[in-house]
Design goal:
The chain is mostly beta strands. About 5% of the residues lie in helices and about 40% in strands.
């Protein structure tokens, strides 16, 4: 399930995907305007100290091919393939930017987004509109940067009035209108591209080339287990082949052959071994998907977890389970609305494995935002999150409306679905309609404005009206609704 990001939000890449091979897609819809979309590779001082890491239409790849311009595809105005393990240590930040080619202002943008795709699946999206800008002609859209030994993503959305020249000067470079005569190399020249400013940096001795780690092979599934790699002398990185639409393949030759393993029961079961990565030290807990049906949560003192009664399938270490009372008022509200959660409180210091009737599980991280989800779709959540019952009114719905739970704050919620869901964008036009029986969750900013009977249900019986109802969702760009391929 793709995570919706808002302006100024930051997230660890490891929270979105285990893959280090990313596809970054940028889309900007602005009738009558043309955009140049680029990627700046910046050093620790956030300066363009090496202009070979200014990747744009006249320079479509960095020297070792870790950052490559792919062009427009799949509905994206521009796209980049980024192999994080191959990005040199000297490059601390990759800044995605967009500048207007010609006259115009960023306020004329109807809609736009930056999306992160890994392994063929969109895992994150930052959406924006021209209402966030005014007279700017260039904008820093998003950053992929290093912090504490790991890569993170930031939704920036900061504009510049001066266009590409202002961006280059901000990053410590210069815009040169024309190349000096005779500067072209002696080799056969490719057809001339449209004129564009070239990056120039202050004269200084070029830094020594940083050692580039060998690219890692992306996991085939979430159950993959790292293969031991024998020690080998360092070798220059191999160039990456052309990327497909949604993934950056790694050459098989880049991964050394695994050490031979003796046959036996243990080796046969290796692919089902417990996964322990994706830790989130800042949150004080780990929420790790062992597979599509099973989640492991690591417990620490002072951070309790609330989970559906009976959802524990195993635990390691010390874990205590206690009935979680709802209080008289919440119990009464839950009984009246059907949104009562039968929960247990889990405390201690250990790891607890959670599942529920082989439902597909999805770990959703809230960073101060809110979303609505039915109580029957909730498996577990952090005790610090606020949750309350919310009424959705609608003409034609049974009893005049229905109820849902709204979660808010900073923490994790595990949502369960029957089958793999789809996340649909919610925009002012066109409207999005969802069968209420297939609805899973939606963003708080989405407006539910009407309902209508749509068809005869398959589960109808004699004397049953057999009508199903659809809900209409509208809202600003960046809102979403989640639908499962199953009707409750």
């Amino acid at each position: 399930m793709s995570r919706e990001l808002v302006k100024a939000s930051r997230v660890r890449i490891s929270e979105l995907t285990a893959s280090t091979e990313l596809y970054l897609g940028v889309h900007i819809a602005a009738p009558g305007l043309t955009f140049d979309i680029s990627c700046f590779g910046l050093d620790a001082e956030e300066r363009l100290s090496d202009d070979r890491y200014f990747v744009f239409f006249n320079q479509p790849a960095s020297p070792e091919q870790s950052i490559r311009l792919l062009g427009a595809q799949g509905g994206d105005s521009e796209s980049f393939a980024v192999a994080l393990p191959a990005v040199p240590e000297a490059v601390h930040k990759l800044a995605l930017t967009a500048t207007i080619d010609g006259d115009g202002q960023m306020s004329q943008v109807a809609s736009g987004y930056v999306r992160i795709v890994a392994g063929g699946t969109e895992v994150g999206r930052y959406s924006f509109t021209g209402a966030e800008f005014s007279t700017e002609r260039a904008v820093m859209l998003a950053d992929v940067y290093r912090r504490g030994g790991e890569w993170r993503f930031a939704a920036v959305g900061q504009g510049f009035d001066g266009g590409l020249r202002a961006l280059l000067e901000n990053f410590g470079g210069e815009a040169l209108e024309d190349e000096p005569a005779g500067a072209a190399p002696a080799s056969t020249a490719a057809p001339a591209a449209p004129a564009a400013p070239a990056a120039s940096v202050p004269q200084q001795a070029p830094p020594p080339p940083a050692a580039v780690p060998a690219p890692q092979s992306p996991d085939a599934t979430l159950l993959a287990v790292p293969v031991p790699v024998p020690a080998a002398p360092a070798a220059p990185p191999a160039a990456y082949p052309d990327a497909t639409l949604l993934a950056v393949p790694v050459p098989p030759a880049a991964v050394p052959p695994a050490a031979p393993q003796p046959a036996g029961l243990r080796i046969s079961l290796t692919k089902y071994a417990e996964l322990t990565k994706y830790s989130d030290a800042a949150a004080g807990q780990d929420w790790v998907k062992q597979n599509d049906k099973l989640v492991r949560v690591s417990l620490t003192k002072g951070r309790d977890v609330l989970a559906l009664q009976g959802s524990m399938v195993a635990y390691q270490g010390k874990a205590d389970f206690a009935h979680e009372g709802s209080g008289m008022l919440r119990t009464l509200v839950g009984n009246l609305t059907g949104q009562q959660l039968k929960l247990m409180r889990i405390t201690g210091e250990g790891q607890v494995f959670l599942a529920d009737e082989a439902c597909d599980l999805h770990v959703v991280r809230l960073e101060g935002d809110s979303f609505c989800v039915g109580s029957d779709r909730v498996l577990a959540f952090e005790a610090g999150l606020e949750h309350e019952v919310r009424r959705i009114e609608g003409e034609g719905l049974p009893n005049g409306g229905f109820f849902t739970l709204q979660f808010s704050g900073h923490g994790t919620v595990v949502v369960k679905t029957n089958g793999t869901p789809v996340v649909l964008p919610v925009t002012p036009t066109p409207e999005t309609y969802v069968d209420v029986q297939a609805l899973v969750a939606w963003s708080r900013g989405s407006q539910v404005i009407t309902t209508a009977p749509v068809r005869i249900r398959r589960s109808a019986y004699a004397g049953h009206a057999a009508e199903s109802y659809s809900l209409q969702f509208r809202g600003a760009p960046g809102n979403f609704v989640v639908v499962q391929p199953f009707e409750v």
